[in-house]
Amino acid sequence: VEGLIRQARAKLGTRYADQPALRVELLTMLAGSLIGLTAFDDAESVLQQALAEGRQALGPGHLLVLRARIAMANVLAQRKQTDRLAAELPALLEDLRNTRGVEPADLIGAYELAAHQAIEQRRFDEAVGHADKALELVRQHLSADDPRRVAASLVPWRCGAASGRMHVCWTCEAYMAER
């Protein structure tokens, strides 16, 4: 499958040069497939291309560029590149919060990444804060049967288990009781 994705990237080449938004979206989709296959080196390369093209043609605040940044943050998290991720996440969250038209799911995913990053760095109070923001967005914007609701609710559990402070899990229990 990775070979097919590499072929798709090669075929994309310089196609759609007059449609930069389409190129950035396609490159980000290809990277998402590579992330799913745990081909993080290839995914990072594709995302670097998407970000370079997107920033130049669309501007750094364009929604598609922000989505490519979220995907890159996922790659950095998976590769345990904590320094790079720590440098990117605050600016990414700020840009997502301040950009009109951002999908709630994008912001939820970024808050979840920030929570997991804070857990890895043993900053548990910060992790809970990010998890609470993700859960609030989940409550406001996702339907009761959306699987991302459960995924978001697990972040406080992970924080409580990692910190030994199981009372943190009350957020999760209260959330699940609402369902």
Task: Report on the architecture of this protein.
The protein has helices spanning 2-12, 20-36, 40-57, 63-78, 82-97, 104-120, 124-141, 147-163, 170-178. It has 179 residues and is mainly α. Helix 6 runs parallel beside helix 8. The longest helix is centred in the first third of the chain and has 18 residues, at 40-57. Residues 170-177 have low confidence and may be disordered.
Question: What are the main properties of this structure?
Answer:
single chain; 179 residues; mainly alpha; 9 helices; globular
Question: Quick summary of this structure?
Answer:
The chain has 179 residues and is mainly alpha-helical.
* Main sheet attributes: strand count, strand direction, barrel closure: none
- Helicity level: over 70%
Residue-averaged pLDDT = 86
Based on CA atoms alone, the radius of gyration comes out at 17 Å
Number of helices: 9
Order of helices and strands: HHHHHHHHH
Apparent shape: globular
Query: What is the strand tally?
Result: 0
Question: What layout of secondary structure does this protein have?
Answer:
Layout: H1 2-12, H2 20-36, H3 40-57, H4 63-78, H5 82-97, H6 104-120, H7 124-141, H8 147-163, H9 170-178
